[in-house]
């Protein structure tokens, strides 16, 4: 009997996972390793090979503040379950005292307030956003270094056995759950390692694998010093987020501007399109970033310098349906300036919209709103 062998390719992902990865990359900048780890875990789930009796994956996310840890997990929830609210988020800093644990798991029957305390984590909460196709939950424990001993005990049980016993003895099953734990531990040490090698605002971090490895090791050692071996042994993978550099922040600015354009297209009844000049983008980047805070302030700067003025312009009808607005920076007043290029240019004009739409919109919903604007009957 002849043997006919075919070489198989185990590195291929299914289309769902490729879409998932692409969705994460559209939202999260510069954290490739983290994206790949999530994609692998999701592929295991979709193939039906999730380990029985334990969570699908336990990931420890380390790295500086404002580097995209929470953003990544939110993007994963949105991509897998269609809604950012599908993410169950536990802020460990809120449960530092033993009595606060009741907020998380409810108090035992008979205790004062038993009926009033709705536990934060229940089976229903985990499954609320499940769909016909995807029955996967995502749970994020933020700032775990602040967790009380009581919370640690619960956490260890979840990570190991995928179960949590509530105050009233009901059990919550965490198999079919991706668990994320975040911490800023090791940031100081990693920053020290980076100082002098690449200043904030220079080249992207690509390149030195060696530096990459040292950063990873430094963060990992900090975690090992702080967390017990029984905890670390339950972690499937430690992912260290990199400090963001100027080119990353530029891309994040584009993403955030895309979100503002999306709000304009879906929330107001005077949809318009705005474009920022290089000088305006530079100004927002300067105002919104700080080497110590990553991209955390970018959104705040955008609200303050862009969204507030745009709201005034809309409310006073200086901007109207279909207008094309240019946003520039005025070096004299150190403020953004707003110019109307062409009034109503985008109403009923497919060509104008195709040419002027400056930003790739984050959701198809907003892109649909833009197309609807282009299809409207032109104004006379
Ligand atoms: N890598 C990134 N890609 C895209 N956006 C990012 C990234 N990092 C930060 N941001 C932006 O900054 C905001 C704050 O980031 P995020 O909440 O993910 O920080 P974090 O790493 O969780 O910080 P912390 O340790 O303080 O919780 C995000 O909402 C997003 O707007
Ligand atoms: Mg966070």
Structural overview:
- The chain is of the alpha/beta class and 380 residues long.
- The protein has 2 domains: 15-244, Rossmann fold (3-Layer(aba) Sandwich); 247-375, Helicase, Ruva Protein, domain 3 (Orthogonal Bundle), CATH 1.10.8.60.
- It is 43% helix and 14% strand.
- It has helices spanning 15-27, 32-46, 69-81, 101-105, 123-127, 149-161, 187-194, 209-226, 229-232, 246-267, 278-288, 298-315, 350-356, 364-375, and strands at 57-62, 88-91, 137-142, 163-165, 171-173, 177-183, 237-240, 273-276, 324-330, 335-342.
- The chain has a 5-stranded parallel β-sheet with strand order 2-3-6-1-7, sandwiched between helices.
- Strand 9 (324-330) and strand 10 form a beta hairpin.
- The N and C termini lie far apart (80 Å).
- 35% of the residues are buried.
- Mean pLDDT is 87; it is low at 198-207.
- Bound molecules: adenosine-5'-triphosphate and magnesium ion (MG).
- Adenosine-5'-triphosphate (ATP) binds at residues 28-31, 65-71, 184, 252, 255-256, 294-296, 299.
- Magnesium ion is lined by residues 69-70, 142, 182.
